[in-house]
Amino acid sequence: KKVAIFVSGGGSNMRALVSDMSGDHPARPAVIVSNNANAGGIAWAKEQGLQTVVVDHRPHGADRAAFEAELTAALAPHAPDIICLAGFMRKLTAGFTDMWRGKMINIHPSLLPKYKGLHTHARALEAGDTAHGCTVHEVTAALDDGPILGQASLRIHEGDTAEVLAERVLVLEHKLYPAVLRRFAENDRTPVIL
Ligand code: GRF
Fold this sequence. Notes:
binds 5-O-phosphono-beta-D-ribofuranosylamine, phosphoribosylglycinamide formyltransferase activity, purine biosynthesis, Phosphoribosylglycinamide formyltransferase, globular, Formyl_transf_N, alpha/beta, EC 2.1.2.2, 8 strands
């Protein structure tokens, strides 16, 4: 299976996925995609000799469909079977998510369905939650809302700040996402629970 990984920033999740796709793993990274030419993930991917594609969303302004049309054209030569969103910070329209329905997954830093959207760690702290973590889910038209493919959880510690919690959750993300992709690439949708 060929995997496209979409990043917007440092791409630590992308690096964890790429590092795991070796040996008997049924998938291989086909292309690393970003909306941000300066994404650290793109620089790293280039150093690894991976194919990269940058499609800047800014020239398209509010025209998400035009951005996605450019994205689709740039993806075509790489013919991915699976798309992994990994710290990709652009919302995708139903036009794009429908095209990739059942083939596109995302990692979100909360125990969905709690805390869809942004600032998940601060919101969990604010709510006084004792458990927190991350979720990998299939991408649908609704934000952070598709079928859950895996979750990893931790206990919130006394004195945890949003920054500390984000770092602790990121470690879990790097374990969860590769484990889910291994199953997903075999069409196994049994949830991974860590
Ligand atoms: C992190 O906040 C992570 O929780 C979320 O996306 C952000 C960047 O991740 N999934 P990455 O280092 O670019 O993978």
